[in-house]
Design a protein that fits this description.
With 237 residues, the chain is an all-alpha fold. The chain has a single domain (16-233), classed as Rhomboid-like fold (Up-down Bundle). It is built from eleven helices and no strands.
């Protein structure tokens, strides 16, 4: 086996300590942001990439993937938007990925992003949202739950969460609903993973995570059902 092959096998082996999911998420997100800068309508809040991947609640039925893909898109007009989210990801992500395992960490991230979008659908259905903030708040919440569950002091992460929640409420144009939705789902998934961490509980863990996903899907159906027809028509539904 070549030197690269040995390196790849070591990095990708199950249970390895390399945070490849964290770096993959960050890499894809930064790559998409770079593409946004060179697409038609670049320099505007809603460029062509954002229009395809960003989340607009009335378009949920026509473009359901945007409930998650919106977490990989950031404003091309603000470097700080992606900088904060990716900084938080590479600080907290590796710790959680090592503690939870790669696939569990990926599920946590995606479900938190999904939860953030669902909260926007339910509480601010006229908005257009992009950004990984919901997923990041999910990581914060899971970090808090896991730390506390293992008897560690979660005060530091709690301060970070509260401070960023307050900022989200005070700054105009920030989708605080996504923050709260990601926070709730991240805490729930973190609790599931904490309480079912033994190997013998793997089946229960998978079942509970699927139940969280199913619950979010049910909330999407509810959100679309209660959405005014005139608003739903804007998304082609």
């Amino acid at each position: 086996m070549s030197r690269f092959g040995r390196w790849a096998a070591r990095v990708l082996r199950p249970g390895g300590s390399s945070p490849i999911v964290t770096w993959a998420i960050a890499g894809v997100t930064v790559l998409i942001w770079a593409v946004q800068l060179f697409t038609p309508l670049a320099g505007t809040q809603i460029d062509r990439v954002s229009a395809v991947l960003g989340y607009f609640p009335p378009s949920t039925l026509a473009h359901p993937w945007t409930l998650v893909t919106s977490a990989f898109v950031h404003s091309p007009t603000s470097f700080w938007h992606i900088l904060f989210n990716m900084y938080a990801l590479v600080v907290v992500g590796p710790i959680l990925e090592y503690a939870l395992g790669r696939w569990r960490f990926l599920v946590l991230y995606l479900l938190s992003a999904f939860g953030g979008s669902v909260a926007v659908l339910l509480f601010q259905p006229t908005s257009f949202v992009i950004g990984a903030s919901g997923a990041i708040f999910g990581l914060f919440a899971a970090f808090f739950v896991v730390q506390r569950g293992l008897g560690q002091n979660p005060t530091q992460i709690l301060i970070v969460v509260v401070a960023n929640l307050v900022i989200g409420f005070l700054i105009p144009g920030v989708a605080w609903q996504a923050h709260v939705g990601g926070l709730v789902i991240g805490a729930l998934v973190g609790l599931v993973l904490l309480r079912t961490r033994r190997r013998a509980q793997r089946g229960a863990q998978i079942g509970l995570l699927l139940a969280v996903f199913a619950g979010l899907c049910a909330l999407v159906a509810l959100g679309m059902a209660i959405m005014p027809p005139m608003l739903r028509a804007l998304g082609g539904g």
